[in-house]
Design brief:
binds iron/sulfur cluster; 10 strands; two-stranded parallel ribbon
Amino acid sequence: MASGARNRYLAAMNEIAPIIPLPKQRKPDWIRVKAPTSVGFAETKKLMRSLNLTTVCEEAACPNIGECWTKKHATVMILGDTCTRACAFCNVKTGMPRMVDPLEPEHLATAAAELGLEHIVITSVDRDDLPDGGASQFVKVIEALRRNTPSTTIEILTPDFRNKPESAVASIVAARPDVYNHNLETVPRLYPTIRPGARYYASLRLLESVKRQDPTIFTKSGVMTGLGEQRLEVHQVMDDMRSADVDFLTMGQYLQPTPRHAKVEEFVTPAAFNAYAAIARAKGFLMVAASPLTRSSYHAGADFAKMKAAREAKLAAKR
Ligand code: SF4
């Protein structure tokens, strides 16, 4: 786009959905959430502790924990609580992880059964120390869930398996999760500072390869806003995801977990999220979730059902 046209485009976008710069310490009203106090919250917490399971809800200090755990929705983080990477946005601790827990798949399946989950989201830390990056544990978890709770639909949110053999991702695809999620997290320009251990195009290729290997698996990816990205860069990420045939885009506001982490450069307004969502839908995603509090696993079960219905409607329209 010529620079004059680009400037006019950016000015128009700012009019539709202005970015409000706020003092760094103060969160806008649309970010505030209530402290978790419900009985359901306490029960979910007790179950996770009793089965020695780690959740990303706690490790990432997710603002939705009160709402999700009250409804008994939790995202379990497998392969331990220590990550081999040190992304500038992430609150999970970095270091040398412990040995893989062989009981984890069965414990996780027990939790899914006790919580009566229709849909479960499983993620993990990065395990660059393992030859397969932890892929075989994802496979064991999927198999344990299929055995114990066959009607539960399974969504996995994996690391990038960078520098691991292609068989790592292929083995997970062969285990047939219902949704394969891998987050691009931010725009390529910000990778060196925000996601230094990862490569944008390697992550994109991972998503593309999952879809190529099994087109029936839904693919999903997300980006955070507020890290200093420009709107046109976000639009380019959407185009890249669509070129990899990603079905579901999630977008949410980045929140700085501690002063040591990357700063929030801006709080993107709910109106701006709506504008992003409209553009993403126009670009052809089957499903889009974009709001300040959207996270990869937020409302994942309900959104999975909507995505499935959207695919069926699309296929019916082609017949
Ligand atoms: S949005 Fe996801 S990570 Fe956050 S509390 Fe809910 S399930 Fe956990």
